[in-house]
Design goal:
52% helix, alpha/beta
């Protein structure tokens, strides 16, 4: 009789549940593997179908982070280019606005300029301008002026003394360096030169100054007001002066130079030069008003406006 391994019924009963468990686990594993295989097959088919329709390649599909990063770089570059274009456009618009703002209308208030701003400034005019030297309100600036000169005689009359002899204002101007030129004429012409001729002479003066110093910033300053008593004379009335100033304003647009409405710093509430400013002749004034004048000039510069718009 062959030998058999001894075991009991109890042992056989204990093995049956174990065997059933093993079979169940194998079945679950097979199903899971089959399910995974089926899902992978389906996903591969979907990817193949997308590729045939022009979708992303497997490499790009599996590298979504790279795609997003590249997309972000493109967006950043686009935004950078747009910002650069906006900045350039804004700067051009600001410069254009500044130029349009000051040609043909009074230079508006700007940042305060230091005294050194006038190191390369030349002041051209009559006795009122000559007072800059008399009162020493701006010693670093150059003054080329003469008492009694008017928009016509300034073009040719030899009144300025130099080391080379007496020359005209324009000849004297040609002998100095000038970054900025401030012209004030009219106090001696408004009474007897009609407005049309006045503007004609003034236009010639501007043309000559531009030809001598083509790179200089040229300011035409308004004719200053006179006192109420002086204004009572029709030849010197402030209404007449205002009319001439309006014509000067229009001339500056034509000639592309800058207009400074200095008169507004001198007028009282009635549009006159205060009596206390010029008690003697109603036109000339003392150091306090020269200080007002230069305070106005320091706060009305083209460079100050341009810097603010940029």
């Amino acid at each position: 009789m062959p030998y058999r391994y001894p075991y009991s019924n109890r042992s056989r009963r204990r093995r049956r549940p174990i065997l059933a468990g093993v079979v169940l686990i194998a079945l679950v594993a097979a199903i899971s593997y089959g399910g995974a295989t089926l899902w992978q097959h389906y996903d591969d088919q979907r990817l193949t179908r997308n590729m045939s329709q022009g979708s992303a390649s497997p490499q790009s599909a599996s590298s979504s982070e790279d795609v997003l990063a590249a997309s972000g770089d493109e967006v950043s570059e686009a935004e950078g280019e747009a910002a650069s274009q906006d900045s350039s456009s804004s700067q051009e618009e600001s410069q254009a606005a500044a130029q349009e703002l000051v040609y043909g209308q009074p230079v508006p208030e700007s940042d305060w300029a230091s005294t050194s701003y006038f190191d390369d400034a030349v002041f051209v005019g009559d006795s009122i301008t000559d007072g800059i030297k008399l009162y020493g309100v701006m010693n670093n600036a150059t003054v080329i002026a003469h008492t009694g000169i008017n928009p016509e005689t300034i073009l040719y009359k030899e009144v300025i003394k130099t080391d080379e002899g007496t020359v005209s204002v324009l000849d004297a101007l040609a002998q100095v360096d000038a970054g900025k030129i401030y012209i004030m004429q009219g106090a001696n012409g408004v009474a007897f030169i009609n407005q049309e001729k006045f503007i004609e002479y003034y236009g010639q003066l501007i043309d000559e100054v531009k030809a001598i110093h083509p790179d200089a910033t040229i300011y035409v300053q308004s004719i200053l007001p006179v006192t109420a008593a002086k204004s009572s004379d029709p030849l010197y009335s402030n209404d007449k002066i205002d009319s001439y100033n309006q014509a000067l304003l229009e001339l500056t647009k034509e000639k592309e130079v800058y207009y400074l409405n200095v008169a507004e710093a001198f007028k009282d509430e009635n549009g006159n030069l205060p009596d206390e400013a010029s008690p003697k002749d109603g036109m000339h004034f003392g150091v306090d008003y020269y200080t007002k004048w230069f305070d106005y000039l320091k706060t009305h510069t083209v460079e100050g406006i341009t810097n603010e718009n940029n």
